[in-house]
Amino acid sequence: MYTTDQYEGMLAETVVIQGANGDTIDAYFARPLGAGLFPGMVLIHHMPGWDEWYREATRRFAHHGYAALSPNLYERYGHGTPEDVAAAARADGGVPDDQAVADLAAAMRYLRALPYVSAKVGVFGTCSGGRHAVLAASRVAGFDAIVDCWGGGVVMGPDQLTPQRPVAPIDYTADLNCPILGLFGEEDHSPTVDEVARHEEALQRQGKEYEFHMYPDAGHGFFYYHRPSYRQAQAVDGWEKIWTFLGRKLAV
Amino acid sequence: MCTMIVQKVSLEGCGKGAGGWFDMNQANVSWDHPFHAPQEHALNIDFVNADQGPSARIAVELSVESARQLVETIQAVLAEAESRGHV
User: H or E segment at B66?
Assistant: First the structure.
């Protein structure tokens, strides 16, 4: 519980990490000041890019006591406004899954190497980032908790598989070895209520630890206060569920 | 890219972006999340020159009805120009 007499300081800056194929990629890093130990969080930006909302979310995690790192998964498209860079990625149907997973694994290892980061590292993502969170934590050991916010494309039909996205994340469910919190909206078109139910069934069948919440009167991106999709009550409740879940799963 | 519905088409033309006029060589047409239009998904057209980096882009985000009307209007204008011998 945050109290007004508490000292608070934060460092937030761009850092460079070595991602997939040894490529250097930028990452936005925010952490509380102090010796720690702080749990780590990897934040995976959404389809609209490595943008201001993700800078704010990264600092928000730091405010809540996490060393938070958000890598730029669109680094290979060059630099410009987040929208222009994201548009280039959108034109390619997104980044290849293998590359994204390797970038996220690098971000997780970066956090684990820091002296003030605890032994616990979680991963958070929204939209395509929610899908990437599920994918990365299923394929790479070292993540201790997942927060998947309306990640579309976890469930994929054979006709949706591409060379860049050759396997549906749901098909890696057996390999998942950390708890997952999922936040979804009933009015979302991707993922649909049915797709979320299928993901839940798969987690249940494999005996995985999960906590899914399906919000009424909410669609895709209900945390985004700068979009018409914002839903105040659902967003407040969703953030509370995130802090409660991570507080339990990443306890130092 | 939540939908992955995207196609690219090569084209010749010029566009005026934030940095002034540039030669376009491609249009990327997608049905996916827009950046500004107030819908979950939109018909997005990015007129780009990929050789000039991500900033060489003119963005259009359309509703379904608007996109269909635009296609019909382009076809109608071209047909009229052809019928008058301009094309």
Answer: helix B64-83
Q: Residue A170 maps to which CATH number?
A: 3.40.50.1820
- Establish if B74 belongs to a structural domain: no
Q: What is the DSSP string of A109-144?
A: HHHHTSTTEEEEEEEEEETHHHHHHHHHHHHSTT--
- Chain B residue with the nearest C-alpha to that of A155: B2
ipTM of the complex: 0.91
Please give the C-alpha separations between residue A65 and each of A36, A71, A104, in angstroms, as whole numbers: 9, 19, 21
Identify the helix (H) or strand (E) that includes residue A205: helix A193-205
Chain A residues within 8 Å of chain B (Cβ atoms): 47-48, 77-81, 83-94, 127-128, 152-153, 160, 162, 165, 188-190, 219-221, 227-229
Task: Work out how many domains chain A is built from and give that number.
Answer: 1
CB nearest A80 (choices: B8, B50, B54): B54
Decide if A199 is catalytic. no
| A48–B33 C-beta distance less than 8 A | yes
What contacts A163, CB < 8 A, 6 or more positions away?
Answer: A96
What gap in Å lies between CA A204 and CA A20, rounded to an integer? 32
Cβ–Cβ below 8 Å for B4 and A162: yes
Per-residue pLDDT reduced to its tens digit, B26-80: 999 999 999 999 998 999 999 999 899 999 999 999 999 999 999 999 999 999 9
Number of domains in chain B: 1
The phi, psi pair for A179, rounded to 5°, reads: -70, 150
How far does the CA of residue A152 sit from the closest CA of chain B (Å)? 6
Range of the domain at A201: 10-249
Asked whether residue A1 carries a pLDDT value surpassing 70, the answer given is: no
